[in-house]
Amino acid sequence: MNLKNATGALMVFCLLAGVISSCTTEEITEVTQVINNDTTIVVTNNNDTTIIINNVGDTMIFTNKSNLEPLVALSPQFNFVKAFSLISSSDTLETGSGELFRMGGSADGSGLVKNGDDYYFMVNLEDHYSVARIIMDKNFTPIQGDYMLNSSVADYARQCSGTMWEAAIHGGFNDLFLSASENYHYDVKGIDPFMSPDVDGDFGLDALGEFSWENAVPLPQNAYPGKTVIVGGDDDSSGSEGQLTLYYSEGGDADLQGGDIYVLKKKDATESLNEGDLAFGESYEMEFVKIENGAAMTKDEMEDASIEANAFQFMRVEDVDYGKGSPEAGRIVYFAVTGRGPGAGTYNDWGTVYKLELAEDSPLTGTMTQIISGNTDTNNKDGNLSILQSPDNICVTENFIYTQEDPNSFSRNHASYIYQSDLNGNNPRVVLELVERADLSPNKNISHSGEFGALIDISDKIGVPNTFMLSVQPHYWVSEKFKSIDGHDITGMATKGGGEDAQGSQIVILQGLPR
């Protein structure tokens, strides 16, 4: 930056960022120094006050990048949080080969990595049976979109939650997007976020086993140095019902082939127990029991083996996350169990969140506590959040748990909420809700049709504190323009689940959400 241009640039920056309310060109009398490769400006105003503004060149100013306003509404207590729409299914980009890209429906699991000055965002598009990559420039403006996997793949599957294995955090030398498959083919796919698209490639990580995968979450490498630990959620309600799973290898911090498969059970249990056997707020000793030859089993065989192992039966394990900020926190696993709904005759109607504190010397034992529950007037009637309906995705930071709802199967007649609580589930309160826009629905009927996908903390990657990316699934938003946009049409393929989906979705930036 030339000194003669610095005053004007500073004026523009002040107006955009709101750094100094009295910053005007009349008051700036001298630009005395430009240092740090044009990223710091030192000025003096007519009151002889020196103003130092850092990172002018690198500051990221968020605006709506999509043509659709954010489909979220902040609650009054969180009015300091700002929402910006990054990309929606109504937007179009070019692919790397110059074709048209449009993001599919039901954006769910996601992960973000940096590549030079650009950002690579991987996201599962659940009801398009595909995985997309969206590239943003240094200003976080989407510039390219590609389908990395589409519905033409032989091991066709419904990609649900997903987690980015980051080498710097989880171990090894390569980043890998772990995309979990809930049905049709029950595996976890590992996709290189930097590779050229291979839309019908085989990315299955067979060593992790077959479950109704909702997510597969690697623990940070400093939690158990020299070990590979991946905790998974089994979104099932039949057979052995839902398990909390564990893939464990002592063969290094990035061994995705030579480990063993385990399922969680109550310590010393001689039969399979369920959530009805637990009291809210009480802690129970748990252990992971090994499934011999688990990698070679089909999903049905895994169900039988889990029953034989007296695995604990949860009513649909959904998302999994771990604590942040220290090796000790990385050994604390949090997971959401979505429940089955009122009148279903199960032991978990409205859903729960658990905290599993793993032992320091081994991930195979720990203490589990139910810390959030919507079952205040049903089941054991000892919950703490009477408005909770079907908790699905969760995000854990150094200080908070963010619990996200999916009320599509059953609801308490309110739109999907996201709650904030402390790390013990105390004082849960509504952060925001999904906007239900009847004008986006073909029949103008929204009926609480929508949910949230992944919420991921991107603060450290982009250098802006308290910044998150949120996947939004407004299931009511349907358009013929959204059919077959992954590049493959499955209409009429009964063996692969029927016709094409026509839903849209959106990615939202939340700035100012406390970590």
What features would you describe in this structure?
The longest helix has 15 residues, at 3-17. The radius of gyration is 24 Å and the shape is globular. With 515 residues, the protein is mainly β. Helices cover 7% and strands 36% of the residues. The protein has helices at 3-17, 167-170, 299-308, 327-330, 459-462, and strands spanning 28-35, 40-45, 50-54, 72-74, 82-88, 93-94, 100-101, 107-115, 118-125, 130-136, 142-149, 159-165, 176-181, 188-191, 213-218, 228-234, 244-249, 260-266, 283-291, 317-322, 332-337, 352-358, 365-373, 391-396, 401-405, 417-421, 429-434, 451-457, 467-473, 506-511. Strand 13 (176-181) and strand 14 (188-191) form a beta hairpin. The chain has 5 helices and 30 strands. A 9-stranded antiparallel beta sheet has the order 15-16-17-18-19-23-22-21-20. This is Phosphatase. Residues 1-24 form the signal peptide. It comes from Marivirga lumbricoides.
Topology readout:
Blueprint: H1 3-17, E1 28-35, E2 40-45, E3 50-54, E4 72-74, E5 82-88, E6 93-94, E7 100-101, E8 107-115, E9 118-125, E10 130-136, E11 142-149, E12 159-165, H2 167-170, E13 176-181, E14 188-191, E15 213-218, E16 228-234, E17 244-249, E18 260-266, E19 283-291, H3 299-308, E20 317-322, H4 327-330, E21 332-337, E22 352-358, E23 365-373, E24 391-396, E25 401-405, E26 417-421, E27 429-434, E28 451-457, H5 459-462, E29 467-473, E30 506-511
Antiparallel strand pairs: 1-2, 2-3, 4-27, 5-30, 6-7, 8-9, 9-10, 10-11, 12-13, 13-14, 15-16, 16-17, 17-18, 18-19, 19-23, 20-21, 21-22, 22-23, 24-25, 25-26, 26-27, 28-29, 29-30
